[in-house]
């Protein structure tokens, strides 16, 4: 093979590949370099190459670095976000929504969503005022009110919040009995816990504001839960029966009062009638006494006849005793009156 022929490869084929030296020269000219002269006699290292201009490359590097650095310095905050800037470890400013600037590598940036309502829930066993144990589940809703205090004053604000919730809850539950904690006192307990929790957070200067505290669930210990459920059921039955009794009382009392008023009016009417009748009898007796004094015998006979008429008019059967005999005369007046009535109807 002929390895000295530069136009053909060792196998006799024509070599059409571009020359490497020519490619390097073109690339050097694109970058603005100067072509290096080739020694006529030829040198041992090939004699071809290019030089990069150090000033232009430095300018390109600074430009690229400026773009990257600017992208790290300029940023945007949403409407609900706020940022705290620390320059060399010291508070510098608090930035609001929109485009903002910081010195990357020098300033520290802390971004938080101050409009977001956060929620925390925990369950603990508490000791009540009457020395009973109860399991209480409490939830708190809160948000960041002061971002500067949230970032700078406390290392772990939300950890402080959790500890403060437990402390406030234990204090309030310890002032209430088991019955109040499990039933009617839960709303008051939640309000007291919220007030006490907010005072703790203000003392710590955490920058957090508590929006609402709820007592999600209160349960007695598992060992006595069945017995307590029976007590609750009995209390509910008691309240139900009391409500039924009150409804019955509301329906029966007005009716009884109405009947009482009716009987009072009847008694008053009877009283007036009896008094009037008595007064009439007294007046009639006084008149009769006056007549009796004038004619005692006639008045006595008249009274006797009136008495007989009054008695016999109400009797349907009369027994007549015959003077000097042993026989009684029976007069069936009722039968006689019926026969006379029938005869009168037939005649008509």
TrEMBL record:
The keyword Iron does not apply. Residues 224-251 form a coiled coil. It is found in: Membrane. Pfam families: Band_7, HflK_N. SMART domains: PHB. The keyword Kinase does not apply. It is a single-pass membrane protein. Keywords: Coiled coil, Membrane, Transmembrane, Transmembrane helix. InterPro entries: Band7/mec-2_domain (IPR050710), Band_7 (IPR001107), Band_7/SPFH_dom_sf (IPR036013), HflK (IPR010201), Membrane_HflK_N (IPR020980), Stomatin_HflK_fam (IPR001972). GO terms for cellular component: membrane. It comes from the Bacteria. Residues 72-232 form the Band domain. PANTHER family: MODULATOR OF FTSH PROTEASE HFLK (PTHR43327:SF2), STOMATIN-LIKE PROTEIN 2, MITOCHONDRIAL (PTHR43327). Belongs to the band 7/mec-2 family. HflK subfamily. HflC and HflK could encode or regulate a protease. HflC and HflK may interact to form a multimeric complex. This is Protein HflK. It comes from SAR86 cluster bacterium SAR86A.
């Amino acid at each position: 093979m002929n390895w000295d022929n530069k136009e053909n490869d060792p196998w006799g084929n024509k070599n059409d590949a571009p020359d490497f030296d020519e490619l390097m020269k073109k690339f050097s000219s694109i970058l603005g370099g100067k072509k290096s002269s080739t020694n006529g006699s030829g040198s041992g290292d090939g004699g071809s190459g290019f030089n990069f201009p150090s000033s232009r490359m430095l300018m390109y590097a600074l430009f690229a670095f400026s773009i990257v650095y600017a992208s790290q310095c300029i940023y945007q905050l949403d409407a609900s976000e706020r940022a705290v800037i620390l320059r060399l470890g010291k508070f510098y400013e608090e930035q609001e929504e929109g485009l903002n600037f910081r010195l990357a590598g020098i300033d520290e940036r802390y971004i938080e969503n101050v409009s977001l309502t956060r929620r925390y829930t925990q369950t603990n066993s508490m000791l009540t005022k009457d020395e009973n144990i109860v399991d209480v589940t409490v939830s708190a809703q809160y948000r960041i009110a002061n971002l500067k205090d949230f970032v700078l004053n406390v290392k772990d604000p939300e950890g402080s919040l959790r500890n403060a919730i437990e402390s406030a809850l234990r204090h309030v539950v310890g002032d209430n009995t088991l019955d109040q904690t499990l039933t009617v006192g839960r709303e008051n307990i939640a309000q007291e816990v919220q007030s006490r929790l907010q005072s703790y957070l203000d003392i710590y200067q955490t920058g957090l504001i508590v929006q609402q505290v709820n007592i999600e669930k209160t349960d007695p210990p598992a060992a006595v839960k069945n017995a307590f459920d029976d007590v609750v059921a009995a209390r509910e039955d008691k309240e139900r029966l009391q409500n039924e009794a009150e409804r019955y009382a509301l329906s029966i009392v007005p009716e009884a009062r109405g009947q009482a008023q009716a009987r009072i009016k009847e008694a008053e009417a009877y009283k007036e009638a009896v008094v009037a009748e008595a007064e009439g009898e007294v007046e009639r007796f006084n008149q009769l006494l006056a007549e009796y004094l004038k004619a005692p015998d006639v008045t006595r006979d008249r009274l006797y006849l009136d008495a007989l008429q009054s008695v016999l008019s109400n009797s349907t059967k009369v027994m007549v005793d015959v003077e000097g005999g042993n026989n009684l005369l029976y007069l069936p007046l009722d039968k006689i009156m019926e026969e006379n009535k029938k005869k009168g109807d037939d005649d008509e």
